[in-house]
Amino acid sequence: MAAAQGRLSDGAGGMDDARGTEEEARHKGSHDGTGGTGGSTVPPAFTAAVEALRAARLRPQIEVEATRAPQRLAPHAYALEAAVVDGDEDLADGRLVLLHDPAGHDAWHGTFRLVTLVRAELEPEMAAEPLLPDVCWSWLTGALQARGLTYGEPSGTVTRASSHYFGGLSARPSASQIEIRASWTPREGLGGVPDTAAHLASWCDLLAQVAGLPPAAPGDASVVTLPQRRGPQSR
């Protein structure tokens, strides 16, 4: 599966960009990539949140697997990478990271945070669409709202980029990419545990929409859709 590459930014406090801080030194090397932290006790709330992610049942076109969690963002972290697959082709890919700080975080206004990176290729002319960033952000918020999820402190960026090839690469067609980076604080439920399975499902709804798949169920009519993205990319 083609994993989304690139740095994740929390979007609420810029924790991933602050290097050399005492917080980084305290958390560096503590993550094992599976939800645990080396040499420390894993909070029950975090364990429950991770187990819900692992047990979630998703639509078959989306392949999800655990990956190594980023360090320095929080005392506890768990990461997933996903790809929307059509045969042997990837239509879109992304990464979702669950962060947990039992002491809470001022920028999060909670003890949990979800951070995501989603990207896909688009037809070159779509990259020039003036409303593209607003539409893509509405896909994220609409996916959460469609499942009745309550969340706070949403933050993020939508980036569009185009590549044009010259010289020895001139035979390659121009390519355009959309990239959504975002984070939000899920509402904590019973025992201080957010409904991470529902948040994962909504994130997969976003992936499917970016990939151009039809909705698995009737969606939010307020969410605007764009024309089909460019053809599948080789895995």
Characterise this structure:
By secondary structure, the protein is of the alpha+beta class. The protein contains four helices and seven strands; from the N terminus they run H-H-E-E-E-E-H-E-E-H-E. It has helices spanning 22-27, 44-55, 132-146, 196-211; strands at residues 62-67, 76-86, 89-105, 110-122, 151-163, 175-186, 233-234. Strands 1, 2, 3, 4, 5, 6 and 7 form a seven-stranded antiparallel β-sheet that branches. Helix 3 runs antiparallel to helix 4 (196-211). Residues 13-39 and 219-235 have low confidence and may be disordered.
List the main descriptive attributes of the protein structure presented here.
single chain, 235 residues, alpha+beta, 4 helices, elongated
Largest sheet, described in full? 7 strands, antiparallel
Share of helical residues: 10-25%
Approximately what portion of the residues adopt beta-strand conformation?
25-35%
Q: What is the total tally of β strands? A: 7
Number of helices: 4
Average pLDDT: 79
Radius of gyration: 18 Å
Question: What would a concise description of this structure say?
Answer:
Helices cover 21% and strands 31% of the residues.
